[in-house]
DNA sequence: ATGGTGGTCTTACCA
């Protein structure tokens, strides 16, 4: 079973990319972020015609998450305890026996912005939710755009990034707090190329110069870690015409025997 | 330090 995450930065623009990549990479599940579509504008038919079940939680212009799966999607959750938030950043569902929690973590803007404490509070509430979900669903994946680079190895130039959002110690501690619930970064279970990133700024030729960050993650519970065979960042779609600024991340799991 | 690009019911805001 292959499970992917991809921040598409507008599904309206990127729907052809998603369908093309789905044919190429044959994921069974794709968690999307930044669909930027209201639910009534969601291209459900195009996606079901491509052979996927789909659930989504969208809003106008900003945010928006969706899960595509070759299997039925059940027990859908879009809102969590103690977080009354109109922003659509959370989507959980069960598919083929695996609990999927798709997150679009707030960016945070800058350390002195109001959006920064919003991000940290959001992460605290989501951590409590994940803890609760882990008790109910031992086979669990938390994936998405975390907007946090876990370590300096995940940053093209750690010195340049010091003091910025996406790398600050409180953000990294919040991510570690999620991992401490019993989740592993599937990407780091395997040997990886140096300077592996999942996002490159559109500005200043970030992709061409590989000035990126690894901020998109697939975290796996202990039960799934044992079955995880591979995790890669697929840079191919980032080279296409009119790309998202993020590349998809794809993890492969052995079937339960 | 600045600003570069890209998306959106755009001319401001988000990333």
Report a brief summary of the structure.
By secondary structure, the protein is an alpha+beta fold. It contains six helices and 14 strands.
Helical stretch tally: 6
Distance from first to last alpha carbon? 13 Å
Helix content: 10-25%
Mean pLDDT: 97
Shape: globular
The largest sheet has its strands arranged as: 3-4-2-1-14-13
Q: Tell me about the biggest sheet?
A: 6 strands, mixed
Beta-strand residue fraction? 25-35%
Instruction: Name the helix and strand elements from N-terminus to C-terminus, one letter apiece.
Output: EHEHEEEEEHEHHEEEEHEE
Please count the beta strands (DSSP E, at least 2 residues each): 14
Low-confidence stretches: none
Tell me the radius of gyration.
17 Å
Structure classification:
alpha+beta
Structure commentary:
- The chain is an alpha+beta fold and 257 residues long.
- Helix content is 24%, strand content 26%.
- The protein contains six helices and 14 strands.
- The chain has helices at residues 11-25, 44-49, 115-136, 158-161, 169-179, 222-225, and strands at 2-7, 29-33, 53-57, 65-69, 74-77, 90-95, 98-104, 140-145, 183-185, 199-200, 212-213, 216-221, 228-233, 249-253.
- A six-stranded mixed β-sheet has the order 3-4-2-1-14-13. A six-stranded mixed β-sheet has the order 5-6-7-8-12-9.
- Strand 3 and strand 4 form a beta hairpin.
- Helix 3 packs parallel to helix 5 (169-179).
- The two termini are 13 Å apart.
- It binds one DNA strand of 15 nucleotides through loops.
Describe the secondary structure blueprint for this structure.
Elements: E1 2-7, H1 11-25, E2 29-33, H2 44-49, E3 53-57, E4 65-69, E5 74-77, E6 90-95, E7 98-104, H3 115-136, E8 140-145, H4 158-161, H5 169-179, E9 183-185, E10 199-200, E11 212-213, E12 216-221, H6 222-225, E13 228-233, E14 249-253
Parallel strand pairs: 1-2, 7-8
Antiparallel strand pairs: 1-14, 2-4, 3-4, 5-6, 6-7, 8-12, 9-12, 10-11, 13-14
This protein binds one DNA strand of 15 nucleotides through loops.
């Amino acid at each position: 079973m292959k499970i992917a995450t991809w921040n598409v930065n507008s599904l309206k623009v990127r729907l052809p990319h998603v369908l093309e990549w789905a044919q190429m990479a044959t994921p069974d599940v794709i968690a999307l972020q930044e669909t930027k579509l209201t639910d009534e504008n969601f291209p459900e038919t195009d996606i079901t015609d491509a052979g996927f079940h789909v659930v989504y939680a969208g809003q106008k212009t900003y945010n928006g998450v969706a899960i595509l799966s070759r299997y039925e999607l059940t027990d859908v959750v879009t809102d969590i305890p103690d977080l009354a938030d109109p922003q659509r950043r959370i989507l959980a569902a069960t598919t083929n026996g695996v609990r999927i929690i798709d997150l679009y973590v707030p960016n945070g803007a800058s350390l002195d912005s109001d959006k920064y404490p919003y991000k940290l509070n959001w992460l605290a509430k989501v951590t409590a939710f994940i803890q609760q979900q882990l008790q109910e669903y031992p086979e669990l994946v938390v994936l998405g755009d975390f907007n946090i680079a876990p370590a300096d190895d995940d940053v093209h130039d750690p010195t340049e990034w010091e003091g910025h959002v996406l790398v600050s110690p409180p953000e990294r501690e919040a991510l570690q707090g999620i991992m401490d619930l019993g989740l592993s970064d599937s990407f780091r279970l395997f040997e990886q190329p140096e300077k592996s990133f999942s996002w490159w700024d559109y500005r200043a030729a970030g992709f061409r110069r590989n000035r990126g960050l690894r901020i998109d993650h697939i975290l796996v519970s202990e039960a799934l870690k044992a079955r995880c065979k591979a995790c890669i960042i697929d840079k191919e779609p980032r080279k296409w015409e009119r790309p998202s600024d993020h590349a998809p991340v794809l993890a492969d799991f052995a079937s339960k025997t």
